[in-house]
Amino acid sequence: MLASAKNITDEDAKAACEWFAALPIKPWIKVVETDTVPKTYFNTDHERLPLPDGGTEPIGNRIIELPQDVARSVNRDPHSGYVAYVPKGSLAKGEEIVTTGNGGKIIACGTCHGPALEGGGDFPRIAGRSPVYIFRQLHDVQTGDRTGSAIKVMKSTVSHLTNDEMLAIAAYVASLGQ
What we know:
The protein has eight helices and seven strands. The protein is α+β, with helices and mostly antiparallel strands. The chain has two domains: about 60 residues, no CATH class; about 90 residues, Cytochrome c-like domain (Cytochrome Bc1 Complex, Chain D, domain 2), CATH 1.10.760.10. Strands 1-7-6 form a three-stranded mixed β-sheet. Strand 3 and strand 4 form a beta hairpin. The longest helix has 15 residues. The two termini are about 35 Å apart.
């Protein structure tokens, strides 16, 4: 791949970028609000999977992402999606925070990420992303582990959020890709 990339012209690179950007985004994550989740374990590839013997447990204050089809996921099928289990009430709480800036306490997400949260300029698409990924990014900005050109704005916004609020934001934003 590196040898091929070295020989590509600027025109070809631009054409490839435009082609990939025009591809429709397929829903990858289905967000489900629940009080209980399947009991899980991590396999040797560090993938969270439901226990083969079954069983459930309270979700508590967690996001649990599991493959929709375990066999396809374990076999690295790139077309196998995921279910993200989130605590009940997360979507409504997240929508309120994202759309109103938590009643004006923070900058509403659409101010920078666009009205549909599909990004633009220096601000990435966040709609439909994995809620675990979104939560991790918010947490890393809050703790200073994430840096970059647009982080100042994010840092001032995220510094006021609790873990519960970040979980709700992540759940809601992920649900926008369904």
